[in-house]
Amino acid sequence: MSTAGIGILVVGMHRSGTSALTGALQASGIALGGPLMASDQHNEKGYQELEAAVRIHEDFLGHFLLDGASLAVLPESWEKSGAAETARVAIRELFQQQFSGEKLWALKDPRLCRTLPLWRQALADDRLRAVLALRHPLEVANSLLTRNNFSINRTLLLWMQHVIEAEKSTRGMIRSKILYDELIDDVVAVVERVKVELEIEWQLPDEERHRNLNAWIDPRLKHQHAPPASVPASAFPPLVEIAVALYRVYEEPGILRNTEKLDQCYGEFMQMLSRHYGHLMQTEIERFEGQLAFQGADLAQRNEEIVRLRETLSWKITTPLRTLGNFVGYSPAEKGSGN
Fold first, then answer.
1. What global pTM score does this model have?
2. What are the pLDDT digits (tens) for 292-303?
């Protein structure tokens, strides 16, 4: 079986093990191109992200005033925009410069959860595979709270948005999924399963590859752990319940082949979320009020900020409902707000 020119797109929410997985692919002989984003205190072994690809994604999202942590959605018919065509041209040029001579190559960027369709449009689908990297949503939320001071509730919404977009946008591709805990526990077995599911062959001998993989994965770099001990008091219980339930669905073996079940689950989760978003909005307002008080904001400033927040937060909180609803055919407006 020929693997010439096959690209593996590693797709997953921030802090979900995409760097660890992509490094494992590199340890198995897959090209990542260069230069890559530098390591830092938050990712000691590096992010394994191709700088040129990140710039393409940032420029594209920035055209719509979005970034990788935005809850807002791309506009309708974004595929027909000049920004999309510019990005597709840049992707084809990047492929020619970085990967045209490679039998196997991989690309990782959490922004791929949103920008992956550009790659499918720019390059022939038979050149591409996808791996979905999944991690317990509360571990992701705790990690982003530590690194970026994102609220737990915001991150849980982002996590749901990212993983559903990733799953939906990779349908029709040859794809696989990995769970972060499985990768840390037995990287050799996980990478071997990815090989089988993606229908590829490694370029390195098994002995060398296993040695590289065991040297790459360091379980001590896992700093966050799932509940019960790590559920923050600020977390909104119904949102935690919905996010964890969605993760449990993704844990099921073979679930990526059962898209009918996934769509049914998405619809049920969105209906549950729509019943609670009013309370969630109030929780976030109270959290923000507390932050302002802690920061010593004067009364006039606090009142001004709270008014602004109340005017905008309802839209921001319901944005994930509209985003995910677009994917699953569910409209919160049609079902009622549930306030």
1. 0.82
2. 454 555 555 556
